[in-house]
Amino acid sequence: MANTNKWGVVAEFDSAAAIYTAAEKTTAQGYTHVDAYTPFPVHGLDRALRQGPSHLGWIVVCCGITGICLAQLMMYWMNAVDYPIWVSGKEPYAWPSTIPITFELMVLLSGLGAVFGMFGLNKLPRLHHPIFQHATFWRATDDRFFLAVEAKDPKFDSAQTTRFLESIGGKNVAIVED
Amino acid sequence: MTAIASNTARSLQDLAPTITAKVKEGDLAKTQMGLMAVGAVLLAIAFFSGKHFYHSYLVAYMGVLGICLGALFFTMVQHITRAGWSVTLRRVTENTAAALPLMAVLFLPIALGFNTLFHHWAHANQDPVTHALLAETDPKFDQVLAGKASYLNATSFFVRAAIYFAIWIGLAVYFRGKSIKQDETGDPAISLHLSRVAAPGLLLFALSVTFAAFDWLMSLDPHWFSTIFGVAYFAGGFMAFFAFTILLARYLGKQGYLKEAITTEHYHDLGKFLFTFMVFWTYTNFSQYMLIWYANLPEETRWFEDRLHHGWGSVGTILIVGHFLLPFAFLLSRHVKRSSVGLAVGSIFLLVIHCIDMQFLVLPSQGSHDAGGTGEKGHGNMTESVSYTLSHFGEDLGKYTHGLCWADFGCFAGLLALVAGFVLWNVRRTNLVPIRDPRLAESLHFQNI
Fold first, then answer.
1. Alpha carbon distance A146, A140 (integer Å)
2. No. of helices (H) and no. of strands (E), chain A
3. pLDDT of amino acid B6
4. Which end of chain A is less enclosed by CB atoms within 10 A, N or C?
């Protein structure tokens, strides 16, 4: 059967240590589209899953630089071009007075960039995700740890992957439809 | 991950048997003696040949004191936050803070040079010949200094200095002593106890450092005042502490110690702190500058006026570029913070900049001011001066280097070497890490997310 209507295979684990070892074994086996779902952050799990560095930093840097430029443009135009006014002997565009607003706008846009960039990279918000169909997945927010091998993985084969996840200690291993 | 619940903590021997817990007998002794000798010789030459030794020495002293105080602050902050990641670093910082008794001894030249350094107020409102107090009607009578006389006088200056050192030495010795005691007993209660002591300790620390900065740096220009001054001094010193610690830990690593205990992950975090407090220095200094620039009040701008003339404007520019723009761009990347060469280069660079920062605080104030102080001299429009400074950078730089004495850097290098030698001596006498700290395992396995 073709894999087109399958999303992936999901396995359940009992502890942070168990899913960490399982993740290491799965990526060592050559799987590349593997993800973990845990009730809390597990240190080093991203490394075990062989996930590269996040691209979020670049988004934040770009937003920060945009904030700096916007603030400077805005204040220069307002104070020196559109409505030049001398206040207490300072030039219409006096750089020290622009620093706080430049800083604040950089922080604001960086912060927004970080939050919405994270949303974007995680494809959020979304109302439904195929993995919710797994019978015990609701425990991922409580006391269980889930490992999923997605169907788009070139090495994915529903029967073989299921056997593999069972062999490394996964419980309730189930194929999830897309 | 912590073993607080059990009665005694697992020791380093258990957790990581391959890590050497102590420097081998006699090892590193040559470096220690060498550093101390170089330091003593440099300071001696500076004393006999420097053209303004006491000011050069104050530059060096405040620069190195910031490092030792930073070590004390770092140690206490790790306890109050019950930090796990930093445990393998903590003995190094405890041993750096334990140089504070030496710093108390090294305060002696400042006491000797008291009349030179603080001549603006040491004999305020006294007749230079008869030493009799001037009458209020006397044209030379300084109303501002008369108002500050109850704070700015020799007796209270030395009493306060004694109180600062009592606080600092007391805290440094206490925290290090308890930590060393835990090496023997492995009692987790010591960790809990120190986290409680750290709270009042940090309060005392904040107050004493603020007032020490007022006494030993800000009072060089006794008419001037800035409430953020203590924080700004602390920020620079704390940054220099991270630079110092990174280099010291690297050196120990090269000698085969602490290599597996202080890993790239720890250096990465030290690098983040170095970056953070470099930026925090900029934040505090800019806050101080901007408010004074904006209000443009003569009694406040006079301090910056001294630092815009006689070539000091170029140093201001050097500090903006070298204490902020350059290191910001350089240290922003995690790859640089995780690279041993990158972080070491950044640390050495920032230590030199820290010395220039101290010169900027001390040296421009050594000249003689008009006794009246406010008004006559300090009426410079700072807006004008900013553009002036930027267009006269080259000329100013020449004036600055011309007015400089080799000892303005030499004393700093000497004192840093002397204190580094002393710290190394402390390191050789104790275990390299708190071997039975309950959070040691967490620190050994620490990883950045």
1. 7
2. 5, 4
3. 54
4. N
Domain count, chain A: 2
Does A137 reside within a domain? no
Query: Is the predicted pLDDT of residue B3 greater than 70, yes or no?
Result: no
> Where among A106, A121, A136 does a domain terminate?
A121
What pLDDT is recorded for position B49?
86
Q: What average pLDDT score do residues B8-13 get?
A: 82
Output the pTM of the full model: 0.90
Answer whether residue A44 shows pLDDT above 90.
no
Picking from B259, B186, B44, B447, the residue whose alpha carbon sits closest to that of residue A44 is: B447
Q: How confident is the model at residue A4 (pLDDT cuts 50, 70, 90)?
A: low
Q: Is the dihedral of CA B139, B143, B149, B153 positive or negative?
A: negative
Q: What is the pLDDT of residues B247-277, one digit of tens each?
A: 999 999 999 999 999 999 999 999 999 999 9
Q: Do B447 and A43 touch (CB under 8 A)?
A: yes
B297 interaction partners in chain A (CB closer than 8 Å): none
Return the C-alpha torsion angle A109, B327, B71, B443, nearest 10. Answer: 70
* Residue A107 and residue A86 share a domain: yes
Asked if residue B311 is part of any domain, the answer here is yes
ipTM score assigned to the predicted complex? 0.80
The answer to whether residues A6 and A42 belong to one domain is yes
Residue B152 CA to residue B169 CA, distance in Å, equals 24
At A52 the pLDDT is 85
Mean pLDDT of B122-140: 86
Mean pLDDT of chain A: 93
User: Does A166 map to a domain?
Assistant: no
Domain limits at A91? 56-121
Contact A89 B381 (CB under 8 A): yes
Say how far apart CA B363 and CA B58 lie, in whole Å: 9
- State the pLDDT confidence band at B383, using cuts at 50, 70 and 90: low
Same domain, A73 and A94: yes
pLDDT at position A60: 96
- Nearest 5°: the CA angle B170, B174, B215 is 25
Tell me: do A41 and A73 sit in the same domain.
no
Q: How many CB pairs under 8 A join A and B?
A: 27
Distance from CA of B282 to the nearest CA of A (A): 12
A169 domain residue, yes or no: no
Q: Are residues A61 and A116 in the same domain?
A: yes
Domain that holds residue B204: 20-444
Contact criterion met (CB below 8 Å) for A174 and A6: no
Which of A69, A87, A121 is the C-terminal boundary of a domain?
Answer: A121
Chain position carrying tokens 């101080």 = B288
Mutate to test the interface with A, among B287, B294, B381 (most CBs of A within 10 A): B294
Q: Given CB atoms, is B137 within the 8 Å cutoff of chain A?
A: no
Could you tell me if A68 and A115 lie in one domain? Answer: yes
In a domain, B1, yes or no: no
Cβ of A54 under 8 Å from any chain B Cβ? Answer: no
Domain count, chain B: 1
Q: Which residues of B touch A91 (CB under 8 A)?
A: 383
Nearest to B263 by CA among B247, B273, B250, B277: B250
- pLDDT of B256 reads 92
